Amino acid sequence: MPIVPPSKLAELQTNVRNIRNVCVLAHVDHGKTTLSDALLATNGIISNKLAGKVRYLDSREDEQERGITMESSGISLYYKLAREPADSDSDAESTEYLVNLIDSPGHVDFASEVASAARLSDGALVLVDVVEGVCTQTVSVLRQAWVENVHPVLFLNKIDRLIVEWQMTPNEAYVHMQQLIEQVNAVLAGFWEGDRLAEDSRKLEEAKERWRETHGDDAPMTEWYLEEKDDSQIYFSPEQGNVLFGSAIDGWAFRVNHFAAIFSEKLGLPSPAKLQPLMWGEYFIDPKTKRRVLTRKQYTKLYGTGKAAAAMPLFVQLCLVPLWQVYESIVVEYDQEKIDKVISTLGVKVLPRDRKTKDHRALLTVVMQGWLPLAQTCMVAIIEQLPSPVAAQPLRLPPLVHGEAKSQADKKAVEPTNDIERALFACTAGTATDPAPLVAYIGKIVSIPRESLPEFSSGANKSNRLTMTADEMRARGRDAVRRELALSRESASGTPLSLLSPQDPASAVASGVATPIQNASTSSASSQYASPDVLVDAMREKLELEADPEAGEDETLVGFGRIYSGTVRVGDKIWAMQPKYNAKNKSTQSYLKQVTVRALYMMMGREFVRLKEVPAGNVFGIRGVAGAILKSGTLASDPLKCPNLAAIHSETYPIVRVALEPVNPQDISKLVRGLELLNQADPCVQIISQSTGERVLVTAGELHLERCMKDLRERFAKCEIHVSEPIVPYREGIVRQSGQSGVLLGEMGSSGQLLAIISKTSHGKNTEDPNEQAEDHIRTKSAENQLSRGEVSMTTANGMVTITVQVEPLPEKTTRFLLRHEDDIGRVVKLASASQRRNRLYAASEALEESGSIGDEDELDTMVAAINVDSDEDEGNDESMQTKTAKPSKSSELGPWLQSRLRTTFRRAKGWEPQRVDHAMASGLWAFGPRRVGPNMLLYSESMTAQSSKAHTSWFNARNPSAAESSSAATPSILSSPDESDSDEHFEAATTPDSASQSKNTQYSIRDFEESINTGFQLATQSGPLCFEPLAGVAVTVKNFVYNNGGAVGTNSPIQSAEAVNSSVLSGQIITTVRDAIKAGYLQWSPRLYLAMYTCDIQATSEVLGKVYAVINRRRGRILSEEMREGTPYFTIKAAIPIVESFGFADDIRKRTSGAAIPLLLFRGYEPLDTDPFWVPTTEEELEDLGEKADRENVAKKYMDKVRKRKGLFVERKIVEHAEKQRTLKK
């Protein structure tokens, strides 16, 4: 096929019904880029022989070296579909299509690129290697397509391996592929079932709510049942045409309708549509008549059980047997006579030089491409099976527009409610006279070398000429000569063209009269005239270059997006909205910026073709949004009316951290700028600037880190950078096992010195003498012997308040539940916080009205409404991207669900009696931490609950307005976030005009310091005593809160201070005291470190299993499961490996197995390391086996010391003082 000029592709962008936006999804090394190369060959971009070898869309050097895709990239392809005429008298109908293809990575580290590709597409080609089967990333990409409502088509790739490597018979291959399709469908069935349960739960809650509004009590749901729905449309089935079989490396593929069209006439059927449903399944050709298709039951009845068992199904006999014959003739046996017979039978044109080639595989590729061409088969499947933007947007956009999770179990088009939604759902481009509202989504920001863009590089212009017709090149050359002549005369005359019209360059030629330009080469008065269009183009280009904020940069940021309605044009001023922007909330205005469209591009892989405008339904590149959109966002013509589309949901989160600093301190500005560019260009990376000035880079994995550092050094920062060892996150916890704790310092040997240091550090003292610290610690504990384990009583520095807290471990099930549901807890906390803020604002407004300090209620009402709208909108967006589970979809219903689930995790847990659990769940739960959503709980004892400002029943029942309103409006919320406390203090100050003068008469109680206690709890759980890492699985119960008069302990009731006490000073001391008390109570238990873990999936043959296990054990991993794939020689091993031990693991296992095993690492969570970091031998058996110094390595202490050393904390280690002594030299 000849090269398609860009002008033809741009023309096809206007026909929305003939556009297909497709992404290619698969596990790593399943053939995505090879398939993309074959599709590119249809447009003449690369030759058919280079397909699968050149890897055209892998434009990065490291992508070519490693042979894997790291960045998603797009390209626009042309395809002309010729359909057979409906009758013999009519001509063949030819239809031209535009296919926007997006190739995506398969490695788990780059899952964010897959999420961006899925958001911009309407359909997906999902590839599965028939040998490796359904892998971890196969499930992940299917889930991503499901979440984004992307319609998939299945491609079973590498069938040639079943013939050549495994030497299967056609019948065996048919059974194997049948099982493979069933596995993929089982994954989709799981998604469907989860959606259906979530939808049913939502409908049940809505029915209950309607019943409550009508009857005032809970609804009897005895007759409620799960609604059954037809799910046949979601599955892959070859007879439906949504499954392709092929080999991308050999260049062939087919669907069953291809063979149905060939054999329907031979079987005497009127049309292929009659045979196609019988091409997959238990259907057989009658061996006698050869004109009839029988079911297995009919075949058995006619020919007996023995012949029926040996009979080949229709798919095997008509599709697979011919394939096996071709491969056996050319590759397996290479029989020249059989090859000639195959070529003549298939009617394939093969050149003589190809027949004589010694490369058997090359001859096979020529034959198969002529018989079953891969690109044409895929293109026809894309056009017939995948929807156009007009058909896809009514199903895909409602969740993005309304922020509500739309279940695919109820996959119906939503009716639009306004003009903007009508334009969005209909994919309306509009016209110049009747424009449609512009709404587009930028899925990712791409960093491009500036010279690669056509407007900045002559080299790029040369490469673009390869895709232009001769007439276009001649016209472009004439325009370039005229433009150069006009600019040269401008410089000679001294009159800039841009001064002809400062506001609008086109106004200089608005009258249509040519503009005279004096010829500097002669002194005559003759003038020559340049074309108005040439002058306008020249002036516009010059103005764009002068006003470009990225001028002078080596890298230019280009947005890669999809336009859903309207038409975007060069020079338009549009609005860029980040995901956090909400038009109804004034506090989010900083996330809205107006930008000017400086250039539009058609993405052509490594090339960029400039466009003047892009209509709805297309993917495109845009320059001019840098700085306005960080990673992704929405572009709109009207930010007040147009919706802000929901953020992209990704399955991968950054976990690997490294600290960066330039080798040359003078390059710090280069590093900062480079990190800014990297943060915008990579959708998954995070940049953290520590308070100490340290800059931390957070990536998804080791491979992702290597790519980011390569980009920083070579493209963004362009300086030498020193990279620290990976900073792996830990969690600190405690267990109920008997072990060394702070009580037994005198018996702990050398570890007691370190624990004393830790204890003193947690008490906020800076004593440098370890002996003095140990003595002070022991003295404190001797005074507290009457308290139970983990119970600590501490007094503030001024002696005014004594607080008693009980620290103890949570049950393991509870900790796992809290770690898994941090996002859900955050949504409930946010809802409860917004409800309590609303009540305080109303109380403040009433107080201000009584005092006459406020006269207009509109402003305050607007603030209250903004709080309500903000919380609702944000929660809606979160709901739309939630992983589908059978929990309530509404945030208001999450509280009761969490309460019931959390209660069940305490069953039969040691130290947690049912009465205590009931009190905690009903009114004793104060807060979670750290960050108010973590896996630690702050509880009130029953006596303290009675003294507090309210029974905290509103936590789990945030949806009930009456519960929230019953609480004291003026009391600071223990659930309010830190950024909300400022506003709370403002309104408290307004209600108490002269609080300082009344301090002497103030009567303090625990109600005044609830937020101080909560803040101390948050600080303690944010930074544990072992190595200043967050805590996990710790429960803190406030058991007593006593006020002292003049340093003497008084009663529990509130008193009047004899002297004026500054409440802010006392509040700060309470925060410190609570924090230190929690850390001191923590050290009385047996401490544990929680390690961040990877789940490792490995496929390996039996020959290398032993080597795989050896590498996993050496990395302190453990095997979770091992199973053999039926019908294959492969074992699937699932293991858990600490992240701290995983660096270099992939290279190590590849070396040990000679590349036969490749691991895939996915973040698993945190697991406790069952080793006390302060353990030393104490029993006679331990002393006899290990000695007094315990020469065996303590892994927990090793990890702890490593973190403490990195953070500059005290580390206990042996240092040689006198190296010249004989005892030292012997060592």
TrEMBL record:
Its main location: cytoplasm. Keywords: Cytoplasm, GTP-binding, Hydrolase, Nucleotide-binding, Ribosome biogenesis. SMART domains: EFG_C. The keyword Iron-sulfur does not apply. GO terms for cellular component: cytosol; ribonucleoprotein complex. One of its GO terms (biological process) is cytosolic ribosome assembly. Residues 962-978 have a biased composition (Low complexity). One of its GO terms (molecular function) is GTP binding. Residues 17-273 form the Tr-type G domain. It comes from the Eukaryota. Residues 762-787, 871-895, 962-1003 are annotated as: Disordered. It catalyses: GTP + H2O = GDP + phosphate + H(+). It is found in: Cytoplasm. PANTHER family: ELONGATION FACTOR-LIKE GTPASE 1 (PTHR42908:SF3), TRANSLATION ELONGATION FACTOR-RELATED (PTHR42908). This is Ribosome assembly protein 1. The gene is RIA1.
